[in-house]
């Protein structure tokens, strides 16, 4: 199809300060540093994608993404945008890994394909609106009193699910959860995320058992991801279900974890999986294994989170969503996209494609690269 031939590719650096630092066990983030990709075809269609590189998780930065994206622009120009498998193969042959920037290209390609099909992206992916997407709100790791204050604030704002960042000593992490429970009571479900913060299997098991009385729904990535062979031991001895996050990047990781019976749940992120193309493979494997899954993200704006929300509607086994980071921004650079309703409920756009674009006023002042 000549009209769907890729004519030009644009890259933009998108910087947005946060209302306050977002802190996990791997370190703090003060300013969002993302990359926006716009792919234009000969028939005038434009597909938008975004990635949020996380140096301590996927080993990419806004600068590496910006440079590697220029390599991708050179190999993708002239290709059929609707042949997503071919485009993904071209990027994989260009450079290994770099899943964050690959995800931005993948999202833009799927946006184009869904627009050409005349369907909202979730329908293009085979999904339907038969469930409510309701995001949690995340409490950064820190002083127990501050974490309690944040949890109380989120509860008062109406959020019905609260996620808590942990990953310190047993004594401190128990103090943190105890303080939060003292502030919000026992009825609100808590989800915890250690971000690999407990250094050994024994330490993780000890902390998880100490947290058992606090009504915890699940725990993400309790131990360093390279200890994946030990994750089954943690899962077997933990009273709290274990969700693989950093150790589950692509479909090969997912298959390995399933074979090992390493965990009960997956957290799928487009920025880890290189986009929809591989994320769908992870979800299919998880569903076949009877797993509950979550869709999360890094520090994407409503553009990237809109993509994640479309994906969350594509598989019946995706039960949880973690789409709160745009609520932490000091500015909203996105037109269209998901809307946040009461109690953290997410409304997904019904227009063909992704349904979200970046306001031109932000792109005009951004550092950019255009390959035409």
Automatic annotation (TrEMBL):
Q: Where is the Mandelate racemase/muconate lactonizing enzyme C-terminal domain?
A: 144-241
Q: Which SMART domains match?
A: MR_MLE
Mind telling me which PANTHER family this protein's record contains?
O-SUCCINYLBENZOATE SYNTHASE, O-SUCCINYLBENZOATE SYNTHASE-RELATED
Q: What is the protein's name according to its record?
A: Dipeptide epimerase
Which residues are catalytic? Answer: 165, 269
Superkingdom of this protein's organism: Bacteria
Similarity comment: Belongs to the mandelate racemase/muconate lactonizing enzyme family.
What's the Enzyme Commission number for this chain? Answer: 5.1.1.-
Cofactor(s) required for function per UniProt: Mg(2+)
Keywords assigned by UniProt, alphabetized: Isomerase, Magnesium, Metal-binding
Q: Does the keyword Methyltransferase apply?
A: no
From its record, what is one biological process in GO terms? peptide metabolic process
Keyword Metal-binding attached: yes
Q: Which residues bind Mg(2+)?
A: 193, 220, 245
Taxonomic source organism: Flavisolibacter tropicus
Which InterPro entries would you find in this protein's record?
Answer: Dipeptide_epimerase (IPR034603), Enolase-like_C_sf (IPR036849), Enolase-like_N (IPR029017), Enolase_C-like (IPR029065), Mandelate_racemase_C (IPR013342), Mandelate_racemase_N_dom (IPR013341)
